[in-house]
Each structure stands twice: as C-alpha cells, then as structure tokens.
Structures
1.
Amino acid sequence: MGFSLWCDYAAVIDFLKKVEAVSYETILYEVADGVATITLNRPDSLNSLSGKLLDELRDAASRAPAVGARALVLTGAGRGFCAGADLSEPPPMDEQGRLDLGKALDERYHPTLQVLFDLDIPFITAINGMAAGAGASFALAGDMVIAARSAVFRQAFVKIGLLPDASGTWLLPRLVGRARAMGMAMLGENISAEQALDWGMIWQVVEDDELQARAMQLAQHLAKQPTRALAAIRKAINASPDNDLHTQLEIERQSQAELGRTQDFQEGVMAFMQKREANFQGR
C-alpha cells in the first residue's frame, strides 16, 4: 500500500513538472512538454512594461526551471511584442521628491533582466509586431530571437530625451557593432525584421502566421537537448566579449570538466557509438 501511494505521488509530481498553469494579471504563463511560455498580456497598451508586469515576468521566469521546464519562450499578445515602458504609471521619485528614472531600473528592470540572463535553460524570444524602447531590449535578450516578417525594432529612447536602457547599450554593440548601435540609438528609427536579420541582431524571420509554431518547435527541440550543456554555452558566449583569450579558455576548461561528468555526456557518446538518437535528460 505504501509503495502504491508513493508511486501515485511520484506520478503527480511528474505531471506537475510537465504541465503548470499559474494565474497572473499581466502575463500568460504555461509550462507544457518541457517548455515554459510567457506571453506579455497587456495588448491594449501594446504590452507596455508596467511595474506589475515586470514583477510577474520575473516571478514566472524564475519558477520555470524549478518545475521541469528545459526551455523558455517569451512573446507578446495582440499586435505587438512590447512598446516599452508604461509612461502612464506614476513616475519614480527619490527621497527628495525628485524624478528618478534610475530607481525603476534598479528595483524592477534590472532584477528581471538578471533572472533572464542567468537562466540555466535556453531562452527564445518570439517577436510579433513592434518591439520598442525597453521592449526591444527584452526582445533582443533572447539567446535566439525569431521575428515575424512584420516585426519592427526601435530604440525609441532618444525621442523622449533618454538613452537606451534595460541592457540596450550593452546588447546593441555586441549584436550589431558600434557604428550600427550608435545609429540605432541616436536616430531612433525603425529597423525591420529583414534588416535586423541582415545585421545579425536576430536568428530568424518567419511569416507572421508561422511565428508561434516555429518558436514552439525550436523550444521543444532545445528542451530535448543536453540542458546543462546549453546553459554552459549561453553563459560562455555571453561572457566572451568582455574576456581576453586566456580567461575564455579557462571558462571553457572549467565548463568542459563539469560537463564531462554529466549523464547527458555519457548518453551522447553512447548514442554516437550506437548510431542512434540520444535521449538527453538534462542531467
């Protein structure tokens, strides 16, 4: 009887790892078949980034690996991915009662971005329509960015007298080089999905009606790959622009030593020797 109850409990836990639905006010969140999907869900405001949305996005992204997700997809509801900050919210003030935009970055944007950059699972963004301002920064934060053909990227900060934030000044020169990053930031012009692809900003452009299916197909593929190796890849590549050769070689050495002790490495070698598909478990 005890063994039977344990088996039932184990089955329930396994089910919860495969499918999880959590209710939020400003995002939609689901984990199924090893993929966590987060949809920014304020379509009436082009999914602008309110404080509530940033808090919920951070919470959902944080919980995804703990319930068995091995890939994360971030997209937007309605006709656009994200229009940037919600400028209708009361502005943040410092202790002297002065406007302090840095406070919002410090308290909400940066912690949320840090969670996304620190994920131990691959992170895909699926961009539908406009991605502007901080919304463009979140869009380009994905390890692999897939854009609908109608998608547009815009560093709109200069239009209101600001500089790109939410990692914008860090991401842009690494993705497109100094000259293009300067042009994007100083002019604030629209960059089409095709131009973004040509510049190396994004991974792939697909037809609008194929976007969600293609993003899910890619995520499901990654969810069946050696998860710890993918985590090591994203961390090493993200670190490389700031490292000299010696430092990067040491990162590779340390990571390879750890990965060589994983079950997935053993399975990968065995599958190669046996000429079959590997069955990676993320361990």
Note: The chain has two domains: 2-89+99-222, 227-274.
2.
Amino acid sequence: MKIILIGSQGRMGKEMQVFLSQNGVQYCPVDKDNVNDLGNMTGDVVLDFSSASALEQNLTFAKNRNLPIVIATTNHTKENIDKIKNQSKYLPIFMSSNFSIMFNLLNRMIGNIKKQTNQEVVLEEIHHKTKKDIPSGSAKMLIATLKRNNVVPKVVALRVGKVIGTHKVKIYGDFETLTLTHNVENRQVFCLGAYKACKFILSKKCGLYNMENLIDCM
C-alpha cells in the first residue's frame, strides 16, 4: 500500500510521516510547498491531514484518480459535509474526527446513555493551548452521540499547556457519579488509527465509512 499524504507538514502530518517511516509504509508527502505536484503523484489511497478549506481540491484529485480517500480533517461546514456525502456515491470515503480506537469505543459506550430526569451529563474536553476549534471535532462527535438519545450535555472546553487530548463524560445522579475518561498520551495512536483506516478503505465499495465500521471489522 502506498499512501498519498496530504498535509504532510502539519502537526499530524509530521507525526504520520514518522509512523509510516518506522513501519516501512510507502508514502508521498504533499504540502503547500509542493501541492502543485499532486497531480503527478501515484498511490493507492489518499490520506488527508490538511485542512477543511482544501477539501474540494482533495476530493477532486481522489475522484479524478479513482482513489479511496481518508478524511482526517475537522471543522467542516455543512456545505463540506454535503460534498463528502455526494462524492461518496462515486468513491470509497472514510471520515472521522478522531482516529483513536479507544476514543471511538468511548463514543460507542455513551450511545447507551439514556435521558433521565434525575441525571445531569457533563462533557469535559482538554486540549493544548494552540488548538483553534472550540469545541473540538472529537467533542462534537461525543455531543452528537449523546443527543441521539435526547441527552444534552453541559460542555466544558479547556485549552491549556501541551495536553494532546482528554475527554471526560460525567453522569451526575442524586447520590452517585459515573465518569468515563479517555486520555491520549502520544499522537501515534491517531496515526495507527489512520493507517488502519487506509487499509480498511482499500477494499471497500463506494460509500461513506467511519471508525464504527472499522471497529466492527476488527
């Protein structure tokens, strides 16, 4: 498998290059300095770690080359989401706001939380102080899962130090509290998940896939 890595010089792009090099995976790095060379690059799958603003360009490239694409960018507008859904009719597309396997297990767990009159749910997320989006794409993912069962959490978002990512879902009852916590200690967990997503999407038909689909096949 050869990966076309778009956004190779960003925070996660650099981490991904380290991961792929250490694991002997072939890849072509693409960033703003050589994005004009994208049309000449060859590979088996596109991994997009660039930005939401580059979505249309990256989808067009994948479609023109008939390549599956893994979208690892966040903060997409409704217009972008509509474009992704439309292009999934013609391409295998994998999209997630968080590529940690355990984070997605947390997301699956909280899908069982039901609305109770005597309970309050709080979502607390902590990220490094340079992270721009508040709440993060990962937090929005957890919020959406809770809201499917009519659970509307109170959200606390902190941006401090060099914290990679901590998410806590706290359920407060009358005389007890349940806390579910996911903490990332190394960004390589995201790289592993993205790599697994690339391998997963290679054999798939046109459609839109996510970490739930991947976990079900593990």
Note: The chain has two domains: 2-95+188-216, 101-184.
